[in-house]
Amino acid sequence: xxxxxxxxxKSQVNEAPLLxxxxxxxxxxxxxxxxxxxxxxxxIIYVGFIPFILLVSPVIADFFVPVYSADLQATADEGRxxxxxxxxxxxxxxxxxxxxxxxxxxxNTTENKFSLYKNRALILEGICSTGSLVSxxxxxxxxxxxxxxxxxxxxxxxxxxxxxxxxxxxxxxGLPIPSANHPSRFEKGTLGDYALVIGNGYMxxxxxxxxxxxxxxxxxxxxxxxxxxxxxYETMQVGSKVFIY
Length: 245
Fold this sequence. Notes:
Mean pLDDT: 83
Oligomer: single chain
Strand order of the largest sheet: 6-13-1-2-3-12-11-10-7
Structural class: alpha+beta
Number of domains: 2
Strand content: 15-25%
Low-confidence stretches: 1-23
Number of strands: 13
């Protein structure tokens, strides 16, 4: 009885480890196996996805990208041309409303040129002189010799105008400024035979310095040659428009 018990214990001892043992793959091999399987699956999907995209993408593109058509382009161009023509007509109407129907003078201060119109037809054009943009400083004041741009009109017409010299004329010559009505302020012949007053001390007048016409050399007034000024003087009336730009 004792021997059989001993033999049973030995058999249990020898069998016990075997009952708890399960054969498994090494961890490293299992991980590499998953990686390789994933790579193979990715290749299969990728190889199958490229033909799918090549076949399906043109169909999808048709829904989002308009197909070029010569007829559609021509129709679009016609629509744009029609719109532009309408805009041009509207602008022409605005210009007609703003343009005087009688006579007016246009002064271009950039190119120092003038254009005289009558009944919207150009009747005379030529060169002139406008503001030099030079600045001058006195004791208590600073002047910038600039021709005023904008919409003006003739406020008065003068023949054989006499120039009433402003303060800057004396400062420019280095002379003391006289009283308002001192005889030294009045000078004949400087402004030519005619002058058109446009306000704030500015005039369209003649000049003794014909060779400087076409240059920006004035103190703000507009100088025009004798022959052209005579035509302008005889054409323009009090109230006539003067556009300066």
